[in-house]
Design a protein that fits this description.
This protein is of the alpha/beta class. It has 2 domains: 207 residues, 3-Layer(aba) Sandwich (Rossmann fold); 172 residues, 3-Layer(aba) Sandwich (Rossmann fold), CATH 3.40.50. Helix content is 38%, strand content 17%. Strand 9, helix 8 and strand 10 form a beta-alpha-beta unit. It binds uridine-5'-diphosphate (UDP). The site of uridine-5'-diphosphate (UDP) has 20 residues, from helix 1 and helix 11.
């Protein structure tokens, strides 16, 4: 343990840069979590380094996010994007480079907190070298995602490593009781090692903007009824059934589905969704906007009549919290934390995770006909869920290790 000075935490985010563009293929809720939690811990007096793989020449050695929080780029593998499925080939390099970094910079860490199974694997090697406790958070439980039957098949290596990690890590951090049960059910995780640390929402950034004003800023018609989707373009997010549901709406006039998110890898899936719309002569109902900067999103959430989070799997569901914080109700699948947060009917509707597009269409129609609830009433539902709340929970777990 470091003597005097702040406690030093090494957060590992091997496959995804915490400062990458949100809503692209490998960058989403986990990056938001890392930035926000690290920021709060920095303010609470910890020194936090987030280690990630360098994939672009222009990335220097590190970037400071605040006086006590840095993102450190580590050389491991080629200077280009590498498919997540191939990244494990560069994991040993990553670990070796981190050991060298610690030695040459004369930095000793008091704890490793790894994110996603690849970093978990790296973390367990490093924990053995540095002889420090290792906490991990999977963000997605591979076996549970696999059980949905949607999206790519998870590699057996992932399932094997996740199973090893639940037995070797000092603490397994999960965001919900649902995730806690998944770890026990699929990997026989020891319950005494699991701690629930809910995610949060940036209540300063995400706040209601007058809907008419938001629409004017975004050049949107005041007459439209807008359904908003925000997230990576990934089959697991249920975007296809959302498009099907919109195409089945009994009243389509003035209805728009605005889709935010997706990068250069999303052209194929987006074209397929556009084809679905074209076949129904309904292109005009869809507006694919691509990535939007995080700090612009409050305008989009506030401009929408309803936000749809109809995923087959979410470990938490940040987008729903952000929408609610902006005063916009949410129609969601029963995933992550959403059935605990969305109090029907004011805050929205929660549908069974396997719901049919027809049921979704019914609820969207119903919601679009209703006069919207007062934004402040909706925001109330998440007003206790700032990131400071998350950090306090996490610090309680650190305290178990004297940190
Ligand atoms: N996001 C963004 N811009 C976009 C698309 C998404 O800032 O164009 C953010 C969104 O606000 C949210 C995160 O990406 O904070 C996605 O998190 P979520 O937990 O919903 O999904 P995940 O990516 O973890 O599956």
């Amino acid at each position: 343990m470091t003597r005097g000075g702040p406690k030093r935490l090494a957060l590992l985010s091997f496959h995804s840069s915490p400062i990458g563009r949100l809503g692209s293929q490998d960058t989403g809720g986990m990056s938001v979590y890392l930035r926000q939690l690290a920021g709060e811990l920095g303010q609470a007096g910890y020194a936090v380094d987030i280690f990630t793989r360098r994939w672009e020449q222009s990335q220097g050695q590190s970037v400071s996010l605040s006086p006590s929080v840095r993102v450190v780029f580590v050389d491991a593998g080629p200077l280009e994007r590498v498919d997540k499925g191939q990244l494990h080939h560069h994991l040993f390099e990553f670990v070796r480079a981190m050991v060298t970094f610690g030695r040459t910079q004369k930095v000793k860490y008091d704890l490793i907190y790894s994110h996603y199974w690849l970093s978990g694997w790296a973390g367990s090697m490093l924990a053995a070298v540095w002889d420090v406790p290792h906490f991990t958070m999977f963000h997605t439980v591979g076996a549970s995602k696999q059980a949905t039957g949607v999206g790519e098949t998870e590699p057996s290596l992932r399932l094997e490593k996740e199973r090893e990690l639940v037995h070797s890590c000092h603490r397994l951090i999960v965001a919900t009781t649902q995730e806690q049960s998944q770890l026990v059910e699929y990997y026989d995780a020891p319950s005494q090692a699991i701690r629930i640390v809910p995610l949060g929402v940036d209540l300063h950034l995400f706040r209601p903007v007058d809907r008419r004003q938001a629409r004017r800023c975004l050049g949107m018609s005041l007459d439209d009824k807008v359904i908003l989707y925000v997230g990576r373009i990934d089959a697991i997010k249920g975007i296809e059934r959302l498009v099907e549901a919109v195409l089945q709406l009994p009243e389509r006039r003035h209805v728009k589905l605005m889709v935010i998110g997706g990068d250069e890898t999303s052209h194929g899936p987006i074209e397929r969704l556009q084809d679905m719309a074209r076949k129904e002569n309904a292109d005009h109902m869809f507006d694919f906007r691509g990535l939007v900067d995080h700090d612009q999103l409050p305008l989009y959430y506030s401009a929408a009549n309803v936000c749809a989070v109809v995923s087959y799997y979410e470990s938490f569901g940040l987008v729903a919290l952000e929408a609610l914080a902006c005063g916009t109700p949410v129609i969601a699948s029963d995933v992550g934390i959403l059935n605990q947060i969305i109090k029907e009917p004011v805050l929205g509707t929660v549908l069974p995770v396997t719901h049919d597009p027809r049921l979704l269409a019914y609820h969207l129609h119903d919601r679009l006909l209703q006069s919207p609830p007062h934004p402040e009433l909706v925001r109330q539902g998440v007003c206790e869920r700032g990131w400071d709340h998350t950090a306090r929970h996490f610090q309680n777990v650190l305290a178990e290790y004297g940190l």
